[in-house]
Amino acid sequence: MGRSEANDRARLLLARYLGQLAERGEREIYVSEEAARALREGLGAGCSAAAAVAGADAPAPSAEAPSRRERGAALKEGLRAVSSDGANGSTKARPAAVEAAAGEKEEPPAGSVTQTKQPKEPPTADRPEPEIVDVTLAFTTAGAAPDMFSGASPLETCKSMSDLEKIASTCESCELAGGRNSVVFGVGNASARLMFIGEAPGRDEDLQGIPFVGKAGQLLNKILDAAGIERDDVYIANIIKCRPPNNRTPLTSEIEACILYLAKQVEFIKPKIICTLGLPATQTLLGIRESMGSMRGKLYRSRDLRVIPTYHPAAALRDPKYKRPIWDDFLLIKREYERE
Ligand code: SF4
Predict the structure, then answer these.
(1) Residue 247 DSSP label
(2) What is the span of the domain harbouring residue 105?
């Protein structure tokens, strides 16, 4: 069997498999980005890998090469499954990995992914403008609440990120110091245009001393990857630097004790966009005591800094209903990021 024929067969098997899953009512099907691209563009390179992913349930290869008509029908079915425009069956492609992260499962399959049945979603450029809310951020050192920085604080004399991290590493300003393995200061590009701010370190983060390395962090990585944003280009931190016992929500007193570290991080990094992940981070930064549902989907503007809140990735791991709004928020982040 020639290479072209083998590629056609692999593509056919994958297309059949996707079609079968779609017929069974599967709403999300995961294949590699490479395979999805091959399906759309008619390239064979990724199909063998994709067929291997699907292998356990894929039909056994037929001894005969598929006819042109058979290939066409199966591919059409498979392409409908991976199409970016499920409403009209168009095969116009968009990055498969984008769909991957939006459809991420709690235990994602290895390799992987793109979802087959796409929610209707206009291209990023055509999306409606979000509501813009002018705010005065409650935590910045340069902004609205200079009184937070009045009084003696060793942080006031701190002139660099490395000095700040050094101070934090021995901090005992709240009771969380007693139960930590690490001070989870932050990670990423110290000149990032985009900064993510989460809630607090979890078990994995506490053990490794790096934020967002557990399951939620892995999901964040995939969403970033799908959005075409390099994790190394952004900076990631939490509103508190030490793990609360049993991952409970940080107390107000703990946030108040720790928030100066974050304020100084923002001051040093000078991001253009901050994405807050979850309720405590969003309420703390915006100084707004509303639900995530009412705060997300908007763009908050404070001077030249924009804040885009979204649910914490851990929420999507607990309940798939949060996938869609998180992805919508990341489309907004991506658009603002590209405007910079
Ligand atoms: S959580 Fe923040 S304030 Fe509390 S001990 Fe850790 S670094 Fe210090």
Answers:
(1) G
(2) 3-121
Domain count, the chain: 2
User: Is residue 52 predicted with pLDDT exceeding 60?
Assistant: no
- pTM check: above 0.70: no
Report CA(142)–ligand 1 centroid distance (Å): 22
**111 C-alpha to ligand 1 centroid (Å):** 38
257 touches ligand 1 (CB under 6 Å): yes
Confidence band of 212 (pLDDT split at 50, 70, 90): very high
My answer on whether 41 and 73 are in the same domain is yes
Q: How far is the CA of 241 from the centre of ligand 1 (A)?
A: 6
Radius of gyration, alpha carbons of the chain: 23
Does residue 148 share a domain with residue 108?
no
Locate the DSSP E strands across the chain.
131-134, 187-188, 194-198, 235-238, 273-277, 298-302, 305-310
From 121, 152, 187, give the residue that closes a domain. 121
Ligand 1 pocket check for 260: Cβ under 6 Å: no
Q: Using alpha carbons only, what angle is made at residue 317 by residues 316 and 322, rounded to the nearest 5 degrees?
A: 15
Nearest CA to ligand 1 atom 3: 258
Distance 220 CA to ligand 1 centre (A): 24
